[in-house]
Amino acid sequence: MSMIKLLDGSKFWMHDQFRDLGRAIVRQENLKHPIKRSRVWNDDDALNILRSTESKENVQALKLQGEIWEDARVIVTPDELRRFQHLWFLWLRDVSCEGDFTGCLSELKWIRWRYLDYPSWLTRVFKATNLCLENLVVAELSGDQITDGLVESLIKEGKKLKVLTLEHSLGITRTPSFPECSTLERLTLQHCAHLVKIDRSIGNLRCLIHLNINSCKKLQDLPEKLGDLLNLQYFSVRDCSSLSELPDSVSQLTLLMKLDVSSTMITRLPDSIGRLTRLVTLKISSTPIAGLPNSINDLQSLSSFHVSHNVIEERPTFMENLQFLRVFKLLGGGHFAARWELPSIIGRLRNLEELYADYFPELEGEVPPEIGELSLLRILSLKHTRIVRVPGTISKLHPLQTLDLEGCDEIQELPGLPDSLIVLRLKSKSIQIVPNISNLTNLVELLLSDGSENGNPSNVIQTCDLQWIGKLSKLKKLELCILNVPSPPTELSSLPLLSQLTLTGLDLQTVRKLPSSLLELELKNVNSIDSLSSNLKNLIELRLFATRVNEMHLDGLPQLERLTVSECELLVRLCIVSTIAKLKEAEVSSCARLVEIRFLGALESLEKLSVEKCYSMRRLGGLSNLKNLKDLKIQEIPELQVIEGLDEWRRRATSWRHTRLEQRIRNLMEH
Known about the structure:
Elements: E1 4-7, E2 11-14, H1 16-27, E3 39-40, H2 43-51, E4 61-65, E5 75-76, H3 78-82, E6 89-93, E7 96-100, E8 110-114, E9 126-129, E10 138-142, H4 148-157, E11 163-167, E12 186-190, E13 210-214, E14 234-236, E15 258-260, E16 281-283, E17 304-308, E18 311-312, E19 327-331, E20 335-336, E21 354-357, E22 364-366, E23 379-381, E24 386-389, E25 402-406, E26 423-427, E27 445-449, E28 477-481, E29 500-504, E30 520-524, E31 541-545, E32 551-554, E33 562-566, E34 573-577, E35 585-589, E36 596-600, E37 608-612, E38 619-621, E39 631-635, E40 642-643, H5 646-655, H6 659-670
Parallel strand pairs: 3-4, 4-6, 5-7, 6-8, 7-9, 8-10, 10-11, 11-12, 12-13, 13-14, 14-15, 15-16, 16-17, 17-19, 18-20, 19-21, 21-23, 22-24, 23-25, 25-26, 26-27, 27-28, 28-29, 29-30, 30-31, 31-33, 32-34, 33-35, 34-36, 35-37, 36-38, 37-39, 38-40
Antiparallel strand pairs: 1-2
């Protein structure tokens, strides 16, 4: 496991243990006196050092955070900061700065200044004047105290500034006037809700590599001068929901590698976008872009293309020339104006590793046999499409790890699959043959469904006995929904790593035991719950839907915390025993014949109980056993006559000042 990583090409990440090692090394500089150390990160130590009149010549990095619940503000004064002669890193959060800061922080290279939103009586203020940070290299500023004037001053004085980040700043309405001599390399404007103008002087930032303008909702246009940023490699205007046009000058950014215009109102890409021959990632999701310029075929370096929630008026034939395409995503409810099929030319994308074409009902027909030529393909996801057939050539894809065919209701059977698969998801209302996939011994997640979850008929005409499940020893998540197919009596319990199990419509009468490794279990439309025995010693969550039993006596689940019982039309009585000692939440709903719920023994962990739409229910017993119940919801229970222990619970609820619970009870008793 790596201790240090570079995430997304820009974020420096380290493991907590590596951080702790660094702190331990700093502590060794002086075990007794933090003021003698080079770095101070503990808030109490930082505040004590700040208030001290001693010289702090050893301190190079200081972090101080004010607390939101403190009535008194933490105020940093110029005199206090002048005592830090060699400070090069300063992180202040939610503290007030007031006074004349002339001569302060002359060696500072990195500042992180952040303010949260507070009630008016707790407002932290920034009233620092004459703040001259001529050696500053990195500035990260956020909060409403950050204003246009402050940023203008910072840019004017900061001749060495390379990184500027402005976030969540309502006081920012425009970008400053950038000088021609600027050395700025990274500029981030994020969640600046009142930003309306990017000054044309942004074109002076000839050193800029990274420009991130995200979630600035009032920004409507961009200057043509963006095309002067000839060293720009990353450009994003994601979630600038009022932005309607991308300047044509963007095509002059010949070094650009990543372009993200997702969730904007931009309607088209420049016709000359093909000039961006180094573009690696293009994201146009959730935009009104309906067509793609022909020059997109010239993006020979493009390896990742994301389109979702778009109305595309043409089929994606452009893929033919994108030889380096590695990730292709068509996701999330967008659609094409006409029906289309995956083209056979897809086999030419020899570098493709991930192919997603999900939630497109216009995608139909067969997956072309040429898919077998994608020798690097790891993920193939065609969820909720009208694909009718997967070719046998898929067995050639030895790197394939994920095949997702959930909601592909036209598929009738599966071909042989590569044993490299780790995730297989198949849900089809047309499935006729239950596959034997005993060769897929590397599977970690499996969904196999005939689409009968919601009362739909099963079209399965050839079944197998599911004995092969016992061979999938690496399974951690299993979802089975095959109507009236007997579950294997012993194979489920032989899956040592299984932690999540969902069974729907299966005959469970022969199942003697479920695996003790289970953490989550969902049973829907099954005919027995006898397998809920004491061996489920690790089960945390149990969900029972439309279970065909008359009585439930839940016992022997020592770790269970969450219980849901719903739509069990035959259920008459539900009994929950105190051996389920860790139960925190219980929800019972839409059980039409349920007459009684009873809690036996003390259930001291139960904090939330909800009973809804059980129209025959008359008795709720053992409420006095729920010593720590904090939230009781009883709704649409018209026949309820008896709540045992109500008076005692009401006294406790009143002492805990849960007055809204009192009102619920009064409403219940009145009706």
